[in-house]
Specification:
Elements (H helix, E strand, L loop, with lengths): L1 E3 L9 H10 L2 E2 L5 E3 L7 H7 L4 E5 L11 E6 L2 E7 L19 H4 L1 H5 L9 E3 H14 L2 H9 L2 H8 L7 E3 L2 H19 L5 E2 L8 H13 L3 E2 L3 H4 L5 H6 L16 E5 L3 H4 L4 H7 L5 E5 L12 E3 L6 H19 L3 H10 L5 E6 L4 E7 L8 H4 L10 E2 L5 E2 L5 H4 L27 E9 L18 E12 L2 E5 H8 L26 H5 L1
Parallel strand pairs: 9-10, 11-12, 12-13, 15-18
Antiparallel strand pairs: 1-3, 2-3, 4-5, 5-6, 7-8, 14-15, 14-20, 16-17, 18-19, 19-20
């Protein structure tokens, strides 16, 4: 390598001599040229960095259901780097391709794998560990030690107040299991097993660990929650509606939509490999609406941005349901919507009302075949789980395909095809009916200073709404659809239902209207 200096008169320029001294090269007599040798030794690091012994296929299934195909390059048994696979089957000429599937988190996963900050051992809050060890030494029993902490307000406050502030220390697996077991046993003994709620890891991560966690909760009588209650990075509407583990339909079908709403899912960040289907659908005119309190990564793709206040999602969704039900299920009564709900939801099923003794009621449980005097229904298999519907003439029928049939070894039929039933959606559609006032809770009221520090619910109240009813074997019943309309504040003026109802969408004094949620 040769370095050239600007020509100068003479050969005694001190700058030339200084340059040759600092660079440790060979300079000409004139000092105008400097010769340097070497300089490639540093390339060895980069050549070794990208060298590998073999390439294997894998995916990143830890807390992600993307299941992207990655080429993982391994040297001496250590992951060195990764690259996206580009051999997915084509989707055809009229759809975007799936590949390349991957995200920056996947590309850097090997760095996470060997990171010094990766959690490899149990950790617990130091203040809790100190108290537990002290109480266990005093009482000689783990459950008694946990009870001593929980039933001492000062001790309980001491460790709960430190949550979110760090202070974690490494403990052994034995001690971690000891503390957790003591907490479970104490809670079950004092409050009952149904006070233990939990969720386990996503099925896509490991069916063994998922099954073990679910089985544990079920065998102790606990409540198994869905991981969607906390997961928060997959579209929640589909699993809540259809009950499937993830999107229904798959993300590729976003491209076929003409209207997309992103709510509770920041797709470019949490669904990076699939986000392009949403983005590319806009080229063919798809309208995108985003509901988010902040200008998130997905918000920039929105044709309309509903910038809600944090914590007000429920109110906005409630008002949307009010408008949809009022417009398309009551005023216009769209057959497509009503027939879909009649066949594929529990809307026509009967619910018993619980009498409060003062002329008001609250929704109870589903009316089942085991509660009727009808010998045929009462003696049917799994009668305690056989939900019922009503036809126009008031006759109670079994629609078939309920959970009772799912566990019937003879029929093993689980399909609400309504082959032998034509149920009404509302009791008001029958030949005769009465009305009853039903109570619903509300949690949007201003805080009453007198209730602070008491057992009274803060900001809670009661909404009075009416539903059409009929009496069946001494029980007052209505349908899920009737209860839902009352809960959403959707009035049917021609029925003259009791209770408090909004005048229109602009009435802010009643729960459920757009004007109410705006406040």
């Amino acid at each position: 390598m040769t370095a050239y200096f600007a020509p100068e008169q003479g050969n005694s320029n001190p700058l030339f001599k200084l340059g040759a001294y600092l660079r440790k090269g060979e300079a000409t007599d004139s000092g105008q040229q400097l010769f340097l040798k070497g300089g490639r030794q540093a390339d060895v690091f980069y050549r070794n960095r990208w060298a590998f012994d073999k390439m294997v296929r894998s995916t990143h299934g830890v807390n992600c259901t993307g299941s992207c195909s990655w080429k993982v390059y391994v040297k001496d048994g250590v992951i060195t780097w990764e690259s996206q696979a580009v051999d997915y089957p084509t989707t055809g000429n009229d759809m975007p391709e799936y590949e390349p599937r991957g995200c920056p988190r996947g590309a850097s996963f090997s760095w996470y794998t060997y990171s010094p900050t990766r959690v490899r051992y149990p950790y617990a809050r130091g203040v809790l560990v100190d108290m537990f060890r002290e109480e266990k030494a005093k009482h000689g029993d783990s459950v008694l030690a946990w009870r001593a902490i929980q039933e001492d307000p000062e001790k309980r406050k001491a460790y709960i107040s430190q949550r979110g502030k760090g202070g974690l220390i490494r403990i052994s697996y034995e001690e971690a299991i000891d503390i957790a077991s003591a907490a479970h046993v104490y809670t079950i003994r004092k409050y009952g097993p149904d006070r233990i709620n939990g969720f386990t890891v996503i099925p896509a991560m490991s069916q063994i660990s998922y099954g073990a966690g679910m089985r544990f909760l079920q065998t102790i009588g606990g409540v198994a929650l869905s991981f969607y209650d906390w997961y928060a990075d997959l579209p929640p509407a589909s699993p809540q509606t259809f009950g499937d583990q993830t999107d229904v339909p798959e993300s590729g079908d976003w491209y076929n939509s003409s209207y997309l709403m992103m709510w509770g899912s920041n797709i470019p960040v949490t669904r990076t490999p699939d986000a392009h289907f949403m983005v590319e659908s806009r080229y063919k005119g798809t309208k995108v609406v985003v509901v988010s309190p902040d200008f998130a990564d997905n918000t920039k793709f929105a044709d309309e941005w509903a910038r809600i206040e944090p914590g007000t999602d429920a109110a906005l969704a409630f008002a949307m349901g009010h408008v949809i039900l009022k417009t398309f299920h009551v005023d216009r009564q769209e057959p497509y919507f009503l027939n879909y709900m009649r066949k594929y939801t529990d809307s026509p099923f009967l619910v018993s009302l619980e009498d409060h003794g003062d002329g008001t009621y609250t929704p109870g449980k589903f009316l089942t075949a085991s509660q009727l005097a009808d010998a045929t229904l009462n003696s049917s298999p799994n009668a305690t789980h056989r939900g019922l519907v009503m036809e126009e003439d008031g006759r109670i029928v079994d629609p078939g395909g309920t959970v009772a049939d799912r566990w019937d070894n003879e029929s093993a039929k689980w399909n609400l095809a309504l082959d032998n039933a034509d149920p009404v959606m509302s009791i008001a559609e029958t030949d005769s009916f009465d009305t009853a006032e039903v109570l619903f809770p509300r949690f949007d009221l201003d805080t009453n200073p007198e209730d602070v520090g008491t057992d009274k619910p803060i900001g809670a109240g009661i909404v009075h709404r009416g539903v059409p009813v009929r009496e069946v074997d001494g029980k007052l019943v209505t349908t899920v659809f009737d209860i839902m309309l009352a809960h959403y504040g959707v009035n049917r003026e021609d029925l003259h239902l009791p209770g408090s109802w909004p005048r229109d969408f602009h009435d802010s004094s009643e729960v459920g209207t757009p004007a109410w949620q705006e406040e």
